[in-house]
Amino acid sequence: MSDAVNPAPTAAAAPSVPLKPLGKVLAVTSGKGGVGKTFVSANLAAALAKRGLRVLVLDADLGLANLDVVLNLYPKITLHDVFTGKAKIQDAIVKAPGGFSVLLAGSGMVEYSRLTPEVRDEFLRIMASLVPHYDLVLLDTGAGISDVVLFAVSLASEVMVVATPEPTSLTDAYATIKVLVTQQKRQTVRLVINQTARTGDGRAITVQLQQVLDRFVATEPGRPIKLVHMGDIPADPSVRQAIMRRQLLAQSMSGAPAALAIAQLAQRVQDTLVSRTA
Amino acid sequence: MCCPFLLDFVPFRTKPTVPSTPLPAPVELQQLRLDDAQALLSRDGVLQTLDGQESATVYLQRVIDGLCELSLKDPLTGLSNRRHFHNMLDKTIDVVARSGDPALLLMLDIDYFKKVNDSYGHQSGDQVLRAVAQALAQCVRPMDTVARYGGEEFAVIMPDCQTAFGFSVAERIRQTMQDMSIMLSPGVEIRVTVSIGGAYAPEWVRSTAALWTERADALLYRAKNEGRNRVLLDSQQEIHVSAEEKNMLFGHLGLGDALWADSVGADNGADGTHSMRAN
Description:
The complex is a heterodimer.
Chain A: E1 22-30, H1 37-50, E2 55-59, H2 67-71, H3 79-83, H4 89-92, E3 93-95, E4 101-103, H5 117-130, E5 136-143, H6 147-154, E6 156-163, H7 167-183, E7 188-196, H8 201-216, E8 226-234, H9 237-244, H10 249-252, H11 257-277
Helix pairs in contact in A: 1-11
Chain B: H1 10-13, H2 35-43, H3 56-72, H4 82-99, E1 103-110, H5 113-120, H6 122-139, E2 145-150, E3 153-158, H7 163-179, E4 181-185, E5 188-191, E6 194-201, H8 209-225, E7 231-233, H9 243-254, H10 258-263, H11 266-278
Parallel strand pairs in B: 6-7
Antiparallel strand pairs in B: 1-3, 1-6, 2-3, 4-5
Helix pairs in contact in B: 2-3, 5-6, 6-7
């Protein structure tokens, strides 16, 4: 087998090699696009802010994310200006409507999506300087398992996969979890199931995913993979309405089922991630 | 190649209902300055002179096809040139992203090539390059793209190359080069070795061409540093989701649970739900 020939690629060759993950950083990712990853990131951040936490959402999709669209924010200064030395990091951070901070990548960041060691170092430096100022930093990553996504996730101490009950979404979520477990040696992967039809769906899906992982993904002895079901967000027409209006759920439809579910998710995130690491 | 009869179809477009677009003026070969192109092509033996039977269109198509072919080839070795290599690399990445079939990229460099040039002259160096190129092309499948990347560096793109076989292919290339003796002139034979670095286009990962070549290149340089005449491949990222895994993933959720299938939504029921239930 060729695998045995060379197990240790160089730094440039292996963007997925875990770096030193930063505490209090939660990467929100998904195997498939269009499952509501950015929607969850933004609304979760707002719900956490409402609980009194200082939260920063960082567009880690390097300019391809829709965070600006979801939040209806188009700042003049973005992460791109920080990268090019045109602006300071504090000038690129803006206040989002939900009471949390947001750092948008800016369209120019696409050119940095080639992860050279310089880009990684700069990104890591920026992240490290930001983390101490917040109770939690959410990384809104891109969809799929690109090198950029894996790099962004590698910076986070915790990772949460967003999926919907659709088979395609579940397959891609499973593939993503597999990569996180095998390449980044993650033991714990958190899961949010979006657009569920009934209570209990998310839990059933988590159990199912866990069983497939246990059966098909080899892990080191004594280091089992743990999927943690963080919550479900029910299919809810008000989500679509909020997105169309480019508003957060909490802004106009705080009583909607999805908004309540996100509030619950926020509590869970605070209890399991923030209180523990703080 | 482009269809040579494309021009013949133009009249069909000018139906009465369509606002009249003027027909393109017929091409007058005499008015085109094709001398340079013709000289280029006949020098390489790609194009014979105008055949009295064929139309201007067909002839022009031949000229264009010939120029396209020339622009993709390395003149010294006849292999693909760097331009064609990059085209194929992008194409292969697209295919891998869709199909999930692994593809292997090999980067090769002739060891101590400068010594060949210094000791035997540049013409001998060219002979060595040609011999290596020819042997390399014979080591791989016709579907693989073999290119001269530059200087004494070569690259091979191997689509649909299972990870279990990558190393043996690369090793076969290395062995072939080591065993081959190249005759520079009567009585003067030399042997060269090659160093090989290889990287798989990761399945499920939308990678970039630059990143892929960088990975293969990095391993080539490691092969050089570790003493040359050797093969180093990176390990394939195993992210394949097998049919068994999918079966287990959906089997329980779908079987006898119409509600769950419904919850997936009417939009997706048509494809997703059915195949799921079939399990």
